Protein backbone atom coordinates (compact mmCIF):
# COMPACT_ATOMS: atom_id res chain seq x y z
CA UNK A 1 0.00 0.00 0.00
CA UNK A 2 1.38 3.43 -0.95
CA UNK A 3 1.67 5.65 2.14
CA UNK A 4 -0.20 8.94 2.12
CA UNK A 5 0.93 11.57 4.59
CA UNK A 6 0.03 15.16 5.36
CA UNK A 7 2.73 17.84 5.40
CA UNK A 8 1.85 21.46 6.14
CA UNK A 9 -1.77 20.68 5.27
CA UNK A 10 -0.85 19.09 1.93
CA UNK A 11 -1.58 15.43 1.23
CA UNK A 12 1.46 13.67 -0.25
CA UNK A 13 1.72 10.20 -1.74
CA UNK A 14 5.12 8.74 -0.89
CA UNK A 15 5.98 5.80 -3.10
CA UNK A 16 8.37 2.83 -3.00
CA UNK A 17 9.82 3.67 0.42
CA UNK A 18 11.58 0.28 0.68
CA UNK A 19 13.25 0.62 -2.71
CA UNK A 20 17.05 0.45 -2.45
CA UNK A 21 18.57 3.50 -4.14
CA UNK A 22 22.19 2.94 -3.08
CA UNK A 23 23.11 -0.76 -3.32
CA UNK A 24 26.59 -0.15 -1.87
CA UNK A 25 25.08 0.87 1.48
CA UNK A 26 21.58 -0.59 1.20
CA UNK A 27 20.12 2.91 1.57
CA UNK A 28 16.42 3.03 0.77
CA UNK A 29 14.19 5.74 -0.59
CA UNK A 30 12.52 6.01 2.80
CA UNK A 31 15.88 6.79 4.38
CA UNK A 32 16.56 9.41 1.70
CA UNK A 33 13.23 11.10 2.45
CA UNK A 34 14.05 10.99 6.16
CA UNK A 35 17.32 12.83 5.44
CA UNK A 36 15.48 15.60 3.64
CA UNK A 37 12.90 15.89 6.41
CA UNK A 38 15.52 16.22 9.16
CA UNK A 39 17.72 18.69 7.22
CA UNK A 40 14.76 20.65 5.87
CA UNK A 41 15.43 23.89 7.76
CA UNK A 42 18.90 24.66 6.35
CA UNK A 43 18.18 23.12 2.95
CA UNK A 44 15.02 25.18 2.48
CA UNK A 45 16.93 28.33 3.42
CA UNK A 46 19.36 27.66 0.57
CA UNK A 47 16.58 26.82 -1.88
CA UNK A 48 14.44 29.82 -0.93
CA UNK A 49 13.54 32.08 -3.82
CA UNK A 50 15.73 30.25 -6.33
CA UNK A 51 14.42 28.32 -9.34
CA UNK A 52 15.28 24.68 -8.73
CA UNK A 53 16.62 22.22 -11.25
CA UNK A 54 16.41 18.52 -10.53
CA UNK A 55 18.87 15.78 -11.38
CA UNK A 56 16.55 12.80 -11.16
CA UNK A 57 17.62 9.21 -10.49
CA UNK A 58 14.36 7.36 -9.77
CA UNK A 59 15.92 3.91 -10.18
CA UNK A 60 18.78 4.67 -7.84
CA UNK A 61 22.36 5.81 -8.12
CA UNK A 62 23.23 3.00 -10.53
CA UNK A 63 20.26 3.68 -12.79
CA UNK A 64 19.53 6.29 -15.42
CA UNK A 65 19.86 9.96 -14.49
CA UNK A 66 18.31 12.92 -16.27
CA UNK A 67 18.34 16.66 -15.66
CA UNK A 68 15.10 18.64 -15.55
CA UNK A 69 14.58 22.37 -15.32
CA UNK A 70 10.90 22.37 -16.31
CA UNK A 71 8.30 21.41 -13.69
CA UNK A 72 7.97 17.61 -13.79
CA UNK A 73 4.73 16.12 -15.18
CA UNK A 74 2.12 15.92 -12.46
CA UNK A 75 3.49 18.83 -10.44
CA UNK A 76 0.72 19.75 -7.95
CA UNK A 77 -0.93 23.12 -8.46
CA UNK A 78 0.11 24.18 -4.95
CA UNK A 79 3.83 23.88 -5.74
CA UNK A 80 5.22 27.33 -6.52
CA UNK A 81 6.34 27.78 -10.11
CA UNK A 82 8.15 30.91 -11.31
CA UNK A 83 8.43 32.41 -14.78
CA UNK A 84 12.11 32.55 -15.66
CA UNK A 85 13.52 34.33 -18.71
CA UNK A 86 15.15 31.70 -20.87
CA UNK A 87 17.99 34.15 -21.48
CA UNK A 88 18.96 33.21 -17.92
CA UNK A 89 18.56 29.57 -18.91
CA UNK A 90 19.08 28.92 -22.63
CA UNK A 91 17.09 29.34 -25.81
CA UNK A 92 13.60 31.00 -26.33
CA UNK A 93 11.85 33.73 -24.41
CA UNK A 94 10.53 32.45 -21.09
CA UNK A 95 10.36 29.21 -19.16
CA UNK A 96 8.92 27.97 -15.87
CA UNK A 97 10.72 26.35 -12.94
CA UNK A 98 9.78 25.08 -9.52
CA UNK A 99 10.67 27.18 -6.49
CA UNK A 100 10.84 24.92 -3.43
CA UNK A 101 9.32 27.17 -0.78
CA UNK A 102 8.34 24.91 2.10
CA UNK A 103 8.49 21.47 3.67
CA UNK A 104 5.59 20.10 1.65
CA UNK A 105 7.20 21.13 -1.64
CA UNK A 106 10.55 19.75 -0.46
CA UNK A 107 9.10 16.35 0.37
CA UNK A 108 7.11 16.26 -2.88
CA UNK A 109 10.33 16.89 -4.83
CA UNK A 110 12.37 14.46 -2.72
CA UNK A 111 9.80 11.74 -3.47
CA UNK A 112 10.80 12.08 -7.15
CA UNK A 113 14.38 11.13 -6.06
CA UNK A 114 16.38 14.18 -7.05
CA UNK A 115 19.53 16.15 -6.49
CA UNK A 116 18.66 19.81 -5.92
CA UNK A 117 20.53 22.36 -8.04
CA UNK A 118 20.12 26.15 -8.03
CA UNK A 119 21.61 29.15 -9.86
CA UNK A 120 23.50 32.00 -8.23
CA UNK A 121 20.47 34.31 -8.58
CA UNK A 122 16.90 34.43 -7.33
CA UNK A 123 13.72 34.10 -9.36
CA UNK A 124 12.75 37.68 -8.47
CA UNK A 125 15.96 39.00 -10.08
CA UNK A 126 17.02 36.70 -12.93
CA UNK A 127 20.68 36.87 -13.98
CA UNK A 128 21.51 39.16 -11.04
CA UNK A 129 23.86 37.10 -8.89
CA UNK A 130 24.12 37.45 -5.12
CA UNK A 131 27.01 35.02 -4.76
CA UNK A 132 30.06 33.63 -6.55
CA UNK A 133 30.73 29.91 -6.87
CA UNK A 134 33.91 27.98 -7.61
CA UNK A 135 33.71 24.25 -8.29
CA UNK A 136 37.13 22.73 -7.58
CA UNK A 137 37.30 19.45 -9.46
CA UNK A 138 40.37 17.19 -9.21
CA UNK A 139 41.78 15.35 -12.20
CA UNK A 140 43.28 12.02 -11.11
CA UNK A 141 45.69 11.39 -9.53
CA UNK A 142 44.88 14.73 -7.85
CA UNK A 143 42.25 14.40 -5.12
CA UNK A 144 40.23 16.42 -2.66
CA UNK A 145 43.52 17.14 -0.84
CA UNK A 146 44.74 19.24 -3.76
CA UNK A 147 41.30 20.86 -4.02
CA UNK A 148 41.62 22.02 -0.43
CA UNK A 149 45.02 23.58 -1.13
CA UNK A 150 43.50 25.56 -3.97
CA UNK A 151 40.50 26.49 -1.82
CA UNK A 152 42.80 28.01 0.81
CA UNK A 153 44.58 30.08 -1.87
CA UNK A 154 41.28 31.35 -3.29
CA UNK A 155 40.00 32.18 0.18
CA UNK A 156 43.05 34.32 0.92
CA UNK A 157 42.91 35.96 -2.49
CA UNK A 158 39.24 36.92 -2.08
CA UNK A 159 39.84 38.13 1.47
CA UNK A 160 42.14 40.72 -0.10
CA UNK A 161 39.15 41.96 -2.12
CA UNK A 162 36.91 42.11 0.96
CA UNK A 163 35.01 38.97 -0.02
CA UNK A 164 34.51 36.02 2.33
CA UNK A 165 34.30 32.45 1.08
CA UNK A 166 32.53 29.47 2.62
CA UNK A 167 33.36 25.89 1.70
CA UNK A 168 31.39 22.71 1.23
CA UNK A 169 32.09 19.31 -0.22
CA UNK A 170 30.68 18.82 -3.67
CA UNK A 171 29.37 15.44 -2.56
CA UNK A 172 31.39 13.98 -5.42
CA UNK A 173 35.19 14.33 -5.71
CA UNK A 174 35.82 18.00 -5.05
CA UNK A 175 35.05 21.16 -3.14
CA UNK A 176 32.69 24.08 -3.75
CA UNK A 177 33.33 27.63 -2.57
CA UNK A 178 30.39 30.00 -2.21
CA UNK A 179 30.94 33.72 -1.71
CA UNK A 180 28.16 36.22 -0.93
CA UNK A 181 28.34 39.44 -2.94
CA UNK A 182 26.27 42.55 -3.37
CA UNK A 183 23.87 41.71 -6.22
CA UNK A 184 25.49 42.28 -9.62
CA UNK A 185 24.88 41.13 -13.20
CA UNK A 186 25.84 37.49 -13.64
CA UNK A 187 28.15 38.51 -16.50
CA UNK A 188 30.17 40.71 -14.12
CA UNK A 189 30.37 37.98 -11.50
CA UNK A 190 31.43 35.49 -14.16
CA UNK A 191 34.19 37.81 -15.37
CA UNK A 192 35.54 38.26 -11.83
CA UNK A 193 35.46 34.51 -11.14
CA UNK A 194 37.28 33.75 -14.39
CA UNK A 195 39.95 36.31 -13.56
CA UNK A 196 40.57 34.70 -10.18
CA UNK A 197 40.71 31.25 -11.74
CA UNK A 198 43.36 32.54 -14.15
CA UNK A 199 45.29 34.11 -11.28
CA UNK A 200 45.18 30.80 -9.40
CA UNK A 201 46.62 29.01 -12.41
CA UNK A 202 49.36 31.63 -12.79
CA UNK A 203 50.24 31.33 -9.09
CA UNK A 204 50.14 27.50 -9.03
CA UNK A 205 50.70 26.30 -12.60
CA UNK A 206 51.63 22.77 -11.53
CA UNK A 207 48.43 22.44 -9.50
CA UNK A 208 45.67 24.48 -11.18
CA UNK A 209 44.01 24.69 -14.59
CA UNK A 210 41.22 27.14 -15.35
CA UNK A 211 40.13 25.67 -18.70
CA UNK A 212 37.77 22.73 -19.06
CA UNK A 213 39.89 20.93 -21.68
CA UNK A 214 40.21 17.40 -20.30
CA UNK A 215 43.69 16.83 -21.69
CA UNK A 216 44.95 19.62 -19.41
CA UNK A 217 43.39 18.28 -16.23
CA UNK A 218 45.21 15.07 -15.15
CA UNK A 219 46.98 15.69 -11.84
CA UNK A 220 45.55 19.19 -11.50
CA UNK A 221 42.57 20.93 -9.97
CA UNK A 222 40.15 22.42 -12.47
CA UNK A 223 38.89 25.72 -11.04
CA UNK A 224 35.49 25.73 -12.71
CA UNK A 225 34.28 29.32 -12.80
CA UNK A 226 31.63 28.65 -15.46
CA UNK A 227 28.86 27.94 -12.96
CA UNK A 228 28.59 31.69 -12.41
CA UNK A 229 26.92 31.94 -15.82
CA UNK A 230 23.26 32.83 -15.43
CA UNK A 231 22.34 29.63 -17.29
CA UNK A 232 24.28 27.32 -14.95
CA UNK A 233 23.41 25.74 -11.61
CA UNK A 234 25.29 24.20 -8.69
CA UNK A 235 24.39 21.42 -6.26
CA UNK A 236 22.56 22.98 -3.31
CA UNK A 237 24.04 22.60 0.19
CA UNK A 238 22.73 19.46 1.94
CA UNK A 239 21.53 17.77 -1.24
CA UNK A 240 22.31 14.06 -1.53
CA UNK A 241 24.21 13.11 -4.69
CA UNK A 242 23.57 10.29 -7.13
CA UNK A 243 26.88 8.58 -6.42
CA UNK A 244 27.90 5.08 -5.34
CA UNK A 245 27.15 5.99 -1.73
CA UNK A 246 24.65 8.60 -0.42
CA UNK A 247 27.21 11.38 -0.09
CA UNK A 248 26.00 14.88 0.77
CA UNK A 249 27.18 18.28 -0.42
CA UNK A 250 28.08 19.26 3.14
CA UNK A 251 29.34 22.61 4.47
CA UNK A 252 32.74 22.34 6.19
CA UNK A 253 34.88 24.52 8.42
CA UNK A 254 38.07 26.15 7.22
CA UNK A 255 39.93 24.15 9.87
CA UNK A 256 38.65 21.00 8.17
CA UNK A 257 39.75 22.33 4.79
CA UNK A 258 43.23 23.08 6.17
CA UNK A 259 43.49 19.60 7.70
CA UNK A 260 42.50 18.08 4.37
CA UNK A 261 45.07 20.22 2.53
CA UNK A 262 47.75 18.82 4.85
CA UNK A 263 46.59 15.25 4.27
CA UNK A 264 45.28 14.88 7.84
CA UNK A 265 41.62 14.47 6.87
CA UNK A 266 39.48 13.49 3.93
CA UNK A 267 36.27 15.37 3.39
CA UNK A 268 33.39 13.02 2.64
CA UNK A 269 30.07 12.91 4.47
CA UNK A 270 27.09 10.60 4.21
CA UNK A 271 23.47 11.34 5.07
CA UNK A 272 23.80 10.02 8.61
CA UNK A 273 26.71 12.38 9.32
CA UNK A 274 24.68 15.54 8.75
CA UNK A 275 22.45 15.75 11.87
CA UNK A 276 25.49 15.56 14.16
CA UNK A 277 27.31 18.19 12.12
CA UNK A 278 24.31 20.50 12.31
CA UNK A 279 24.13 19.97 16.07
CA UNK A 280 27.83 20.82 16.40
CA UNK A 281 28.22 23.64 13.90
CA UNK A 282 24.79 24.81 12.86
CA UNK A 283 24.59 25.77 9.19
CA UNK A 284 28.15 26.77 8.31
CA UNK A 285 26.81 28.52 5.21
CA UNK A 286 24.27 30.68 7.03
CA UNK A 287 26.51 33.78 6.54
CA UNK A 288 25.57 33.64 2.85
CA UNK A 289 22.15 35.00 3.84
CA UNK A 290 23.68 38.11 5.42
CA UNK A 291 24.86 39.48 2.08
CA UNK A 292 28.33 40.35 0.91
CA UNK A 293 30.54 43.13 -0.34
CA UNK A 294 30.54 44.62 -3.81
CA UNK A 295 32.73 43.13 -6.49
CA UNK A 296 36.01 45.01 -6.83
CA UNK A 297 36.01 47.48 -9.69
From TrEMBL:
**CDD domains hit by this protein:** MtLigD_Pol_like
> What top-level class of enzyme does the UniProt entry assign?
ligase
**Pfam families, alphabetized:** LigD_Prim-Pol
Per the record, the coiled-coil ranges are none
Keyword check for Ligase, yes or no.
yes
Q: InterPro entries given for it?
A: LigD_pol_dom (IPR014145), MtLigD_Pol-like (IPR033649), NHEJ_LigD (IPR052171)
Listed name of the protein:
Non-homologous end-joining DNA ligase
Origin organism of this chain?
A: Streptomyces montanisoli
The organism's lineage? Bacteria, Bacillati, Actinomycetota, Actinomycetes, Kitasatosporales
Chain's gene name? ligD
Amino acid sequence: MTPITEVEGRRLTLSNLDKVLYPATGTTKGELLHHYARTAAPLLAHLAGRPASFLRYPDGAEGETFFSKNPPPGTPDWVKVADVPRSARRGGDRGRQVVVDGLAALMWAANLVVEFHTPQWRAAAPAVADRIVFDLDPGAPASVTECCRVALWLRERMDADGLHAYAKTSGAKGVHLLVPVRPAPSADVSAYAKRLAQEAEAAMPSLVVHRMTRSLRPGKVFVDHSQNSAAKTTATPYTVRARERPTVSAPVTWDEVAACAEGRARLAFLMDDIPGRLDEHGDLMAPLFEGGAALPS
